[in-house]
Specification:
By secondary structure, the chain is an alpha/beta fold. About 30% of the residues lie in helices and about 15% in strands. The chain contains ten helices and twelve strands. A twelve-stranded mixed sheet has the order 7-8-9-6-5-4-3-2-1-10-11-12. A hairpin with an 8-residue loop joins strand 11 and strand 12. Helix 1 runs parallel beside helix 2, helix 2 packs parallel to helix 3 and helix 3 packs parallel to helix 5. It is globular and about 65 Å long. The chain starts with 10 loop residues before the first strand and ends with a helix. The protein binds S-adenosylmethionine and iron/sulfur cluster (SF4). The site of S-adenosylmethionine (SAM) has 21 residues, from strand 3, strand 5 and helix 10.
Length: about 325
């Protein structure tokens, strides 16, 4: 599948649900989300069909996300179905990790190859605050169970936010003793029309990846250890991150600047929301419905929607500093 700008599109991110067992302050409104009637959400059989047709058109990698994908009933069977779809080479998951102790082994068995776990702070009280009540011990247990289940790579994603004043050094050092790939993601002030997300964090809360790396390297100097060195290609599914490593470390440290346009040229992905809208670009509210075609149309009708989505994909997203090119919260798009 090639888009209108000649880019090869082989990666599809599918949101299984808008719902979540946490309420991160930058992602979800405090009161939770308006419950969408079940019949407006893509059925698992419809997702399987979409994947089969997309794979025939050249999609090779699927990432399941949300909301929290592990709160969707039937997720293990869905992974098994996707993993056995001809043409699909890789199935991965983005999760807050809370339910991984329960599901990790079954997911591995079903064919899931790798997981990204979101963890923004290593401090229990701050985790409770950011997630509005989450228990960090469950998230940490999720990381452990992923390593035990044999997922590789296991990535830990932390969104950097200035006022949280996170301990970037402690995060980065998680990569030394264990095969963990820690990634810092610049906060995206998306989600409502005033230009700041629902939590009131605006662009002033963004900490650039350069600053994070600088702070880690200054601390390394103070501790008398070697700092971060460029790490070649990075772990599998490296995508838009830039990777570094401490000499001798088992894992890596990656940096993702979602608002910078440098990766638009290499963009290889489309997103599908839980209600069956294809979003050609994360930073645009333009979307195209595929649910109707999946529910009532032929395979050709689904193919036609995918082909139209390819034509809609912009060459690059809007002004990165205006930041809220999308007014949708991340729980709806899947990050
Ligand atoms: N619930 C799963 C999780 O938390 O990993 C999957 C969905 S969540 C929307 C996917 C990712 O988006 C998470 O890593 C989360 O931290 C990130 N995210 C949500 N809102 C964001 C924002 N405003 N800026 C940057 N990242 C954001
Ligand atoms: Fe839930 Fe993930 Fe959003 Fe946090 S970031 S509220 S865990 S969907």
């Amino acid at each position: 599948m090639r888009d209108g700008h000649g880019r090869r599109i082989d990666y599809m991110r599918i949101s299984l649900t808008d719902r979540c067992n946490l309420r991160c302050i930058y992602c979800m409104p405090a009161e939770g989300i308006v419950q969408v009637p079940h019949d407006r959400i893509l059925r698992l059989s419809e997702i399987e069909r979409l994947v089969r047709i997309a794979a025939q058109m050249g999609v090779e990698r699927i990432r399941l996300t949300g909301g929290e994908p592990l709160v969707r009933r039937g997720v293990v069977d869905l992974v098994a179905a996707i993993a056995s779809t001809p043409g699909i080479k890789d199935v991965s998951l983005t999760t807050n990790g809370i339910l991984l102790p329960r599901y990790a082994a079954d997911l591995k068995q079903a064919g899931l190859r790798r997981v990204n776990i979101s963890l923004d702070t290593l401090d229990a009280a701050q985790y409770r605050q950011v997630t509005r009540g989450g228990d960090i011990t469950s998230a940490l247990a999720g990381i452990e169970s992923s390593l035990e289940a044999g997922f590789s790579p296991v990535k830990v994603n932390a969104v950097a936010v200035r006022s949280l004043d996170q301990d970037f050094w402690a995060f980065a050092r998680l990569s030394v003793e264990r095969p963990l790939h820690v990634r810092f993601i610049e906060y995206m002030p998306v989600g409502d029309s005033s230009g700041v997300c629902g939590c009131g964090w605006g662009p002033e809360e963004v900490v650039s990846c350069e600053e994070i790396r600088d702070r880690i390297n200054r601390r390394a100097l103070a501790e008398g250890v070697e700092g971060l060195l460029p790490a070649g290609g990075g772990p599998e599914g490296a995508g838009p991150a830039r990777y570094y490593e401490f000499p001798g470390a088992q894992g890596t440290v990656g940096f993702i600047s979602p608002l910078s346009r440098h990766f638009c040229g290499e963009c290889n992905r489309i997103r599908v929301t839980s209600m069956g809208k294809i979003r050609p670009c994360l930073f645009s509210d333009e979307e195209i419905d595929v649910r109707e075609a999946l529910r009532c149309g032929s395979d050709d009708a689904v193919r036609e929607v995918l082909a139209r989505a390819m034509r809609m994909k912009p060459g690059e997203h809007g002004n990165p500093n205006s930041a809220h090119a999308t007014s949708t919260n991340m729980n709806q798009i899947g990050g």
